[in-house]
Amino acid sequence: MSLGISLFIAMTIDAFLGEPDWIWRRLPHPAVLMGRLISSLEERLNRGTQRRAAGVLLILVLLVTGIAVGGVLSLLGPLAEILVTAVLLAQRSLVDHVAAVVDGLRQSLSAGRRAVAMIVSRDTAGMEESAVARSAIESAAE
To answer: Domain residue spans in the chain?
Structure first.
């Protein structure tokens, strides 16, 4: 199956199904797992005098991990690749979260802050309305 067709199918699955909560209440999202791996390695390696070498090691570990996961997926076949791609695209989820920020801001600033906190890692407690909106737009653009 061509890459274009696989991507089209993955985007269609994501558009219609999004990211079912019942799955992610039971399993960690792949993006969360990637973030945990990066944070864990960064905590262990980003200290001392050899930080540059440690940074290179971090990049190499992440590259090897990505290549290994890609290799396993290719062995599992196109269906596995399509499903993982649909999950990692998460376009519908992002649209839903940004819409929740808009709805939250229509209700109150605190509701908007709570909604944007679901998609950004920074502290939202002191954000003004414009900062909440800007954060949602930045997340959508990423």
So the answer is: 3-89, 92-141
